[in-house]
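Entry: Glycoprotein-N-acetylgalactosamine 3-beta-galactosyltransferase 1
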Amino acid sequence: MWLRVNENCLFFALGLAVASTFFLFQSSNNSLNCSAILKADALAKQPSTQKVDTVDGADSEIAKLLTGPPKGGDDKDEGDDGIEFMDEEAHTMFKHTHENPVSTALKKAVRVFCWILTSPKNIKSKAIHVNATWAPRCDKHVFVSTSFPNSSHTGLPIIEFDIPDGRDSLWAKTKAAHQYIYDNELDNYDWFLKADDDTYAIMENLRFMLLAHNSSDPIYFGCRNRPFVKQGWMSGGPGYVLSREAVKVLVEDGLSNPEYCKYKDDGPEDVQIGLCLEKVNVTAGDSRDSKGRWRFMPLQPQSHMRPGNRTLDQWFYDYLYYPYTDGKECCSDYSISWHYVNHEWMHTLDNMFYHIKPVGMIDDGFWPQKALTDKSMDALIEKLKVFAVNMSQPTV
């Protein structure tokens, strides 16, 4: 009990320190003008355990195991009632003015389109915070939502579908989103990331992992789970990323064939797309690093990084495809994403990753000592590619 109390105090102190640093820094630079403080937490929603009809007859087993996030999870339907929000300027991504040549090189080599599942009730409480933090680091990003009035007033890039809102419609939105990508964006990007509106992703690390792979191969990556699909399926929460060829095969050979992809719209979207992709011979890739550490994390950072965490629900262990260790060895040095990240943690993580740096921190040796030319940019990309390949071959 003493340890848990002090742990909570430590997290509170850390959060307070980061928040203080953030607001002092922003105030001194006149970058953000916060007119209100985010407050109020909504009640956590209980995921449906309704029986689902899958193409492999795994309906009842899926319903038993899909019991929602572990204790302490932040899977919430945070509506707009009773919440004050920062002004519009505060939801614009803050950028440092200095150049990041490594990030620039990765962006040149790996083009990523991101689509983020959201809903009308989550626009202010979740989507705007994704839009103000990691999403603009995609080459292009859109929010996929049920149609709602005045959506153009949100200031967000929203693709609307005439599909009912709710968890039972996630598979319908997923099918519609991939059809939209196929019709409008397929040739413009190499990889296509699906995320939730409570996902936090580090796009530089995603591009780094993908640099070791070819988007012309039918493959996809994410947090790989074991039940229901022989080759495994990728958890929707931390996101999954499909190659251009995987999207092409999914739409052309899968979505039009009810024997491969479920025609009905209900059921868990991540399991359903996993079943569908397996049927059309899209490979479930291994996203772990060379030490076997995970890169797509299905829970909050604090759930994974706390050593000796024994509070996780049984479903987490039932889903494991690969061995798991909590604490420092839970996650790759180049981790990509986490799930159940609320608006407060969204901004905290973004500030810590991109704006706070310990003095004397050793880098990876990739940072050029002078401005990049086209030739030196290509050389840096090749150097990064070799490192990415070496980091993408688990040896444990």
